[in-house]
Amino acid sequence: MPKLKPPVRTPHIDMTPMVDLFSVLLIFLLLTASFRPQEATTITSPNSVSEKQAPDTSIMTIILNKEGKVFFNMDNGKDSTKHTRVDVLTEMGKQYNIKFTPKELYDFGHWASFGMPMVDFKKWLNAKDSKEKELLQTGIPTDSVDNQPSQLFFWVRFARLANPNAEVAIKGDGETNYKKVKLVMDLLQENKVNKFNLVTNLEKQEVTLKDLPK
Questions:
Q1: Is residue 12 part of a domain?
Q2: Sheet-wide strand order for 59-64
Q3: Residue 77 domain-assigned (yes or no)
Q4: Please, which residues have CB within 8 angstroms of residue 169's CB and are 6 or more apart in sequence?
Q5: What is each CA distance from 203 to 44, 49, 63, 84, 180, in whole angstroms?
Q6: What confidence score (pLDDT) does residue 160 get?
Q7: What does pLDDT average to in each consecutive run of 10 residues of the chain (214 residues)?
Q8: What DSSP letter does each residue of 151-184 carry, written as one string?
Q9: pTM (2 decimals)?
């Protein structure tokens, strides 16, 4: 009598638990992720072959777009217990007789780069949409008024006092007028900042056989 062969079954993997796990992880990431605020202006940095990387934290950046408008950015430093941005804005308010509410200070602590005269700062903080905020971003004044240093001078001064260990960087557009960059460099030196970085894009450098030493 011939033997009976059991039916051959194709292996089956139940993917339902994996899909459920993926959905839970996705929801967790969406709830905990912090989205980076939109920058004040678009910059096309010049290229260079330098491979030095700018630090991720504890950095102060002066930004110049191709029209020569100046913007500013800073983080809260490496110490998570400090609120450098809030401290700096508070000092700027004292300098220009502007009182900021706790909500305005909190909101400013979570924004990125900015650039407008102090007279428009509260309008910018309380703007209802991004379009209104963008229209107010006319650049930080760099000229002295009534024999007083410029507003950019005080932004740098108070940021340095709040975080003396912060590195300083200039991020200029490739089409920015050099005179404007020189003005910013002079202003940094007035604040005794003699060491700073120029932010550029890394340019790939190809080497051929004829470039190699013989």
A1: no
A2: 70-74, 59-64, 167-172, 197-198
A3: yes
A4: 54, 59, 60, 61, 62, 196, 197, 198, 199
A5: 13, 5, 20, 34, 24
A6: 93
A7: 60 65 65 53 54 73 90 82 90 96 93 92 92 91 87 95 90 83 90 82 46 45
A8: HHHHHHHHHHHH-TT-EEEEEE-TTS-HHHHHHH
A9: 0.72
| Residue 41, in any domain of the structure | no
115's tokens: 């650039």
Residues in the chain: 214
For the chain, the domain total comes to: 1
Q: Report the pLDDT value the prediction gives residue 5, as an integer from 0 to 100.
A: 60
In a domain, residue 30? The reply is no
Q: By the 8 A CB rule, do 130 and 38 touch? A: yes
Q: What residue type is 54 in one-letter code?
A: A
pLDDT of amino acid 148: 87
Amino acid 123: pLDDT = 95
Q: Is 114 helix (H, G, I), strand (E, B) or coil?
A: strand
Give the domain extent around 182: 58-201
